[in-house]
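Homework help board

Subject: predicted structure for assignment chain

Our instructor gave us this sequence and asked us to write out the predicted structure in C-alpha cell form, then describe one feature. I got the C-alpha cells but I'm not sure how to describe them. Can anyone check?
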Amino acid sequence: ISTLDGIVWHIGSKSDQSPLAVADQHCMSVITAINAFTKAGVRGIECGFQLVTCDGVSTGADSLPVIPAHSQFWGFGRSLAAEQPTFQIRLVDQSSAVDSDSSHKAAFLADYVLNSTPENQIAIRNGQYFIPRLQRVSSDEAEQVNFPISSEGACLITGGLGMLGQETARWLAA
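My C-alpha cell output:
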C-alpha cells in the first residue's frame, strides 16, 4: 500500500472520563496506527488523517464550554502534523449541541474531509466553518485587557528564543 484515501479518527462525544483517561485511550492508538501505516509502506494519505473532537475548541463568546479531554488533542494533533507531514493531519471540532438533524453534522464533516482545502484546523458549528486567524487589535482594545502580573510570581514563556518570545520577556520584565 503506498497511499490511503483517508482516515477519520473520532475521539467521541462528551465523556465522563478524565482527560488523562481519554488521552490514554486515543493518543497511543493514533501513534500505533501511524507507526503501523509507516511500517506497511504507506507514504501518504490522500484526504488526510482527520482527528475529530467534540467541543475541543471555543469559537467565541456564544460557544458551549470547552471539554478539556478533547482540547488536548489539538496540541497532540499539531505536534503529530509537524512530525508526520505526509499524513496530512487535520483537526476538526464539532459541536455537541443537539440539533434536529444529526445527518447535517455528518454531511459537513464529509464535505470538509473530501475537500482539498489547505486548512488543517477547523471547527464546525451550525453549518459554518470556523478557521483560526490572527486579528489586529487596536491599542485602545489592548489597554482594556486585564492581565494581572505579580512581581511575586514567575512566568514561563515557551518558544522564548524567537522574536515574539523575547519581546514578551522584555514586556514582562518591564
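Reply (TA_rk): Your C-alpha cells look well-formed. For the description, you could write something like this. The first helix runs from residue 19 to 39. That's the kind of observation they're looking for.
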